[in-house]
């Protein structure tokens, strides 16, 4: 069970009141950090480039199961269990210490001090033991004046603390966000990035700023992963909420930089075995870090079978590094697709509702074409089957069925014809009222399979509707390249404002503008207009063609 008192302290520390109480020291810290604050709005950054987390990191963290009750003996026994029970062989590498590992004061040289009662051999001794098993050690600190549980934070001490971690043999830093005194997150997290780099030791850098300040827009240049939400807890409702927040951010993830929907609760709390398999399925489909947060040494055979399912892990760890996207979503029935490096596609059929339901999609909808039959592997049961294109399963309440789909080609290439599905709204892009008037702005409406909702990707990169003398092309109004430009139909002319990229991350971008095809205001209503907008990872910018 999670230590509820420690959890409460964490949330109190994150409150506005906590910041107010800390203002007595903030003036000095602000003056130190002011030079690090980047002017203007944050822009998407290039990958960090430290060579780590080329696939999402896998490991263990003690917080969810133990709270502040961390110790050297716990970390060593967990590492040994992972070494012996198949988790290490399955890819789990990091054994991570969370909050409460240190004393409440630094030493006379300003260095952090491991609590000698909890870590009699120090962090260095603990790391040496973990390394002897072929595993790696992670540690926790905070980008504020104090950690969430009230221990010394690293704000203003980044260089010293990074050097200390490196000297101890630390391989991973989880960097939290409590008691931050209102200093912008990007500057605080960048300061520790630079300090870690200066040590010369490869240390995976996990940003834990709870999804604040649109971290996904700048996190790739700062850390190897970034939390996209607040803390998870061991309940279905918490897992579902976090899934909804994280699933639309696929365009920001990739090798070396991942969206992090928080640690896994498999084996904890009120999660049933079905719900635990769902969490593991969805996290893997979303290319999320797989950080186990349960009592590993006493985990049940069911819990271990979930954590060590090699077929599902392979989806998460696929080298192509694509986060899965929603193909369809409506009535609590979700279909996700994730392209894989060998040309297969992983499909997750997720039933959010409280009753068993049949969930269906097609090979074309998930980006598969060019075959009369496709091979399906059920990633939980291992059963195999074939289909001519329909992909369907009876899915229990709160359950997920995962398939790996092989055969044909992947990726909605030239010649693909079908509906252009607006994933967030569960509707289709159309020419209103089947108009053939040039300049008609396109919108979304319930999918009907009609000619005004049928689009073809041409060899010239156009998206054409209708045929023959009536054919028209999707067009950015008047060659404009600014956010808010209306998207219309116009006579096909081959110009740059009629050229579109249908991307594997689910976006459709204008070749001329680089902007995303967007449902205005994230509306899900019939008649909602389409426009160009800055790509932001929102579900209203997710599309599938086919």
TrEMBL record:
It catalyses: Hydrolysis of terminal, non-reducing alpha-D-galactose residues in alpha-D-galactosides, including galactose oligosaccharides, galactomannans and galactolipids. Gene3D superfamilies: 2.80.10.50, Aldolase class I, Golgi alpha-mannosidase II. Residues 417-546 form the Ricin B lectin domain. It comes from the Bacteria. GO terms for biological process: carbohydrate catabolic process. The keyword Signal applies. CDD domains: beta-trefoil_Ricin_XLN-like (cd23418), GH27 (cd14792). InterPro entries: Aldolase_TIM, GH, Glyco_hydro_27, Glyco_hydro_27/36_CS, Glyco_hydro_b, Melibiase_C, Ricin_B-like_lectins, Ricin_B_lectin. Keywords: Disulfide bond, Glycosidase, Hydrolase, Signal. Its EC number is 3.2.1.22. GO terms for molecular function: alpha-galactosidase activity. The keyword Signal applies. Pfam families: Melibiase_2, Melibiase_C, Ricin_B_lectin. Belongs to the glycosyl hydrolase 27 family. This is Alpha-galactosidase. It comes from Actinacidiphila cocklensis.
